[in-house]
Amino acid sequence: MKNPLRKRIKREIFGEIGKYIAIFLFMLLSIGFISGFLVAASSMKTAYDNSFEKYNIENGNFTLAMKADDALISDIEKEDVKLYELFYKEENAIVGKDDNEATIRIYKDRKDIDLICVMDGEMPQNDDEIALDRMFADNNGISTGDEITVGDIKLKVSGLVAFSDYSALFSNNNDIMFDAVKFSVAIVTDSRFDKLSDDHETFCYGWKYNSEPSDDKEEKNMSDDFMKALASKALLTNYIPRYQNQAINFTGDDIGSDSSLMIALLYIIIAIMAFVFAVTINHTIDREASVIGTLRASGYTRGELVRHYLAAPVIVTFVSAIIGNILGYTVFKELIVYMYYSNYSLPTYVTLWNPDAFIKTTIIPVVLMFVINLLVLIRMLRHTPLQFLRCDLKKNKRKKAMRLPRWNFLSRFRLRIIFQNIPNYLILFVGIAFISIMLAMAVGMPSTLQYYKDNTKDMMFADYQYVLKSYKDEMGKEITTKNSDAEKFSMDSLLYKTDALNEEVSVYGVEDTSKYISLPDAKNLKEKEVYISKPFSDKYGVAVGDTVTLSAKYEKKKYSFKVKGFFEHSQSIAVFMPIEQYRTVFDKDEDAFDGFFTNTKIKDVKKDYIATVITEREITKMSNQLDHTMGSYMLYFQFLCVVLSAVLIYLLTKIIIEKNEVAISMTKILGYTDGEIAKLYLLATTIVVVICAALSVLVGTLVMRSVWTVMLQSMSGWFTFIMGPLDYLKMFAFIFVGYLVVMLFDFRRIRKIPLDEALKRVE
What we know:
Elements: H1 5-15, H2 17-54, E1 60-64, H3 70-76, E2 81-85, E3 88-95, E4 100-108, E5 116-121, E6 129-133, H4 134-139, E7 147-150, E8 153-163, E9 183-188, H5 190-195, E10 201-209, H6 216-233, E11 236-241, H7 246-254, H8 259-287, H9 289-297, H10 302-343, H11 355-380, H12 385-389, H13 409-420, H14 422-454, H15 456-459, E12 464-468, E13 487-497, E14 502-510, E15 529-533, H16 534-540, E16 547-552, E17 558-567, E18 574-578, H17 579-585, E19 595-598, E20 610-614, H18 616-659, H19 661-669, H20 674-713, H21 725-752, H22 757-760
Parallel strand pairs: 4-9, 6-8, 14-18, 15-17
Antiparallel strand pairs: 1-10, 1-11, 2-10, 3-4, 3-7, 3-10, 5-8, 6-9, 7-8, 12-19, 12-20, 13-14, 13-16, 13-19, 15-18, 16-17
Helix pairs in contact: 1-10, 2-8, 2-10, 2-11, 2-18, 8-11, 8-14, 8-18, 10-11, 13-20, 14-18, 14-20, 14-21, 18-21, 20-21
């Protein structure tokens, strides 16, 4: 004979269909999104990993001051490497319907190394054609067949491609963030390349080892040895081994890097839902205590009752997981893939079955739900049949009621409601705090980016920072300019080495009376005393009086400096000293310098002498890129957080009202109106929600600041997580708006409680 309790499972679920639909949708969306994320990330990571062999990606590249002749190439290749020309020319371009300004790094077609994946159209066949990076084209609204202006010529876009060595569009390996809005790589025919101006040609060479390194450690050792040999043979201007190349590695490091975070996020959500179920079951057992006592007295075992009450949460979780995985492999996977393709220049991929994702998003959530509710049920069902029949389930009985303050009756009544529902409110606080962490990111990220975009001017040394190839022209004369506001400076790049990162630090030598970088008491600085930028101090906790040790990039030299103070108006990791001290420390000529600071454009220095010009565009490209790729998603994320908080509050307030149905029914019998009852119960919950929301906003922000700090410790550069007063109010408002919607449902639920409910159950 079948167990009659089985029929009750279906009736129980459909009897409270609103609650179960809310829980089902909550877990379905969570599991579906995270399943889709794991599937998309693993599939794209596999395609990325396979691209190294498929597209023959370089082991590294270096640039020389001048083109190497055959003898030099032959000499370098004796170091057990094979060299390939990767020369490029950079041109300013006008692109898109809005005539956006951009920089295009133009290459010849590759035949042997760093091969290219054609995503749409075809490679250039004629001199008037160009193939652009697919992500850059998408960001600027460019399609195959459109025309762009490169320099002074118009070229037709023959195709959209993905460069295997530019999966992230870093124009400079030392940049904090890539720029896929204002920078692109491109391919033209060999003859068109030769016709382009040589003013900004870079003699870049890629290399492949004849014998591939077996692991990361051997790769680093081989790279170090090759750099030493190379530096002794030629004048290096840049050297980037593959393991340090952000354009290649940034994407691979990022894809799937959030998997652990996503899994933790899922398990926290499932745990919260499990405790919501546990509170629901706890309430159900309290409400059905006499029925359970009768069943136990009739011969039903604890095991049978445990299995019965476990059925609903496990079934709902299992169905949510199965349907969530189906959606994960279809709808959500495509969403995540779109997000990745919106950020990175990835080649085509194939969706792969991910058994690990299935286990983590289906088996483990079901087991987690099962275990948490099993522990709660074992504790609740340990009472004797007689205790259940008497509804005597409280372990610790108070001999007398808690004394409350001498407030008016209604206030004491609300306080009693709060005390009676403390376990539910604690879960509510944990849930809202967890949502507040996500909300802090969704609100704080746009505010942080906007803050840096708005304050970029204040953080720039000058409107223009001209870096020269040499301070002397081909005749040996010092390069000068007639700009009255131009000021000489010296600059070099060193490394600040930590366990997590080799951070590149810009070291500046400036005039004692500099109007661009004013150092207090610069003339009286002792030898090797320096000022450091505030971001340097904030990131690494460097204080005044500390000694920082910096290392040369391509040599075994180290430099130690004592920190005299901080320079506030800088966004970079930098060190500042008088230019005379700079020349002494780095053994430069007494009149040597590396460029000019100026607030006006320099027009009387030949382009051939200028290595680069740093303007507001270079400073803001990180915030612009993050805003472009993440800004719209943050709005969706804010909406999602509002929905999640509303669902969680709905579930727990529903339990609180159900737990007090008898009391509410009794107050109705005593003549209280629905509005007056709502003031008692809903106002009590409102007070708790306001307190929980306020505390959660603070907790969420503090946790997000800590996560932000840890995250940036493994990345180059630094900028502080910014949350203004309005952002705190915004977070609070989002949570409270969700609660206001829930209040409408709660009031409707109170109105539906019949007067005879108090007469049905006498406890």
